[in-house]
Amino acid sequence: MRLVANIPHPKLKISILSFMDKWIIEIEGGAYKQAFKISHDAIPSEEEVKKLLTEELLQGCMDRFNGMHTDFGKAFQAYKNA
């Protein structure tokens, strides 16, 4: 797996990687990570991959991170109370 780019963002860690003819966009927020895989055939270049990183996509990721945090918190609390 080859790191292609780190994209600056004030709240998220955003990385673009290349692996086995796929672009992988990794978006990390705190302890949580989301990944998107796209074929090199579908998106020809790193610059084109960056165009996918819209505010709408990133806001959706942050919303999912909040949901993930809530779900994990509930599961962890149930584990501790068991």
Q: Which short descriptors sum up this protein?
A:
about 80 residues, alpha+beta, four-stranded antiparallel sheet, about 35% strand
Short description:
With 82 residues, this protein is α+β, with helices and mostly antiparallel strands. It contains two helices and four strands.
Structure description:
The structure is a single chain. The chain has helices at 46-50, 55-81, and strands at 2-7, 13-19, 22-29, 32-39. By secondary structure, the chain is α+β, with helices and mostly antiparallel strands. The protein starts with a strand and ends with a helix. 39% of the residues lie in helices and 35% in strands. The protein has one domain (2-81). The longest helix has 27 residues, at 55-81.
Uncertain segments are none
Q: What is the radius of gyration?
A: 15 Å
User: Whole-number average pLDDT?
Assistant: 96
Q: What would you call the shape? A: elongated
Number of strands: 4
Task: Tell me the span between the first and last alpha carbons.
Answer: 40 Å
Instruction: Please report which band the strand proportion falls in: under 5%, 5-15%, 15-25%, 25-35%, 35-45% or over 45%.
Output: 35-45%
User: How much helix, percentage-wise, in residues?
Assistant: 25-40%
Helix and strand element order: EEEEHH
Number of helices: 2
Task: State the secondary-structure class.
Answer: alpha+beta
Strand order of the largest sheet: 1-2-3-4
Quickly count the domains: 1
Largest sheet: 4 strands, antiparallel
